[in-house]
Amino acid sequence: MLTFYFLGAPRLEKNKRPLALDTRKAIALAAYLALTQTAHERDELAAFFYPDADTARARAALRRTLSTLKTALGENALDIEREMLGLNLEKIRVDVLEFRALARQNDFESLTRAAELYQGDFLAGFTLRDSPAFDEWQFFEAESLRKQFAGALEQLVAFESERGASKRAIEYARRWLALDSLHEPAHRALMLLYARDGQRAAALRQYHECVRQLDSELGVAPLPETTELYRAIQENRLTTNDRLPATTVAAIENQKPAASKAEPSKNEQQKYPLVG
Fold first, then answer.
1. Domain contains 158
2. Which of 81, 137, 249, 274 has the highest count of CB atoms within 10 angstroms of its CB?
3. Are 85 and 8 in a shared domain?
4. Is the pLDDT of residue 258 over 50?
């Protein structure tokens, strides 16, 4: 059984044993064929991976890379024709494809498995300096996967909160925030979760960290919603028995960044929307 791991540092395995590939281009080719899930023309791939070479040299370099990959994967893993080549994905497990399928589901089990699969950003630490087109493709794939992962974590925070599993909800919220330290909904989720878990000091520290990050990176103050939540925690207007509503995290996700450092009015403070 062949398994391609591309979430995190890339590695290819055959029967749970790592495959040794002596060229980064072979790993890149495997990743590109696996994620595009289609056959490609040889000339297209040659130009994509070897943009600085003329057609003849690019095709020759592609043949060498293909030979390396074929030797490592075995005869049946690649679908090779005279002018086209692709992967036989029925014989290969690809973590990215599995992650995407699971993250599209809305059930707890699928999202939990998706979070387990996401061991790091797509092809973390990997680059092809002589192939700008590949690096650009890698960047956008990585960003798309991060966005999908953030959505999965957001839902898991709500699921675990509803189940009363505060420690797991906090763990997922931390992972969510780690994707973007400026994302206020994740900061607010952590603050609320800490407070309802009896970790009032941690909740207040989380707010100050949010303030620091926003001021340092953007020069803005937190949104009124974030400040309102801080004050509610500070004034003990939350109880540890309250649970985060399943819709809370999704509802606050659409809030826009603050445009100024204006403090919320007294009336705005009284309209605290996050108390369950």
1. no
2. 249
3. yes
4. no
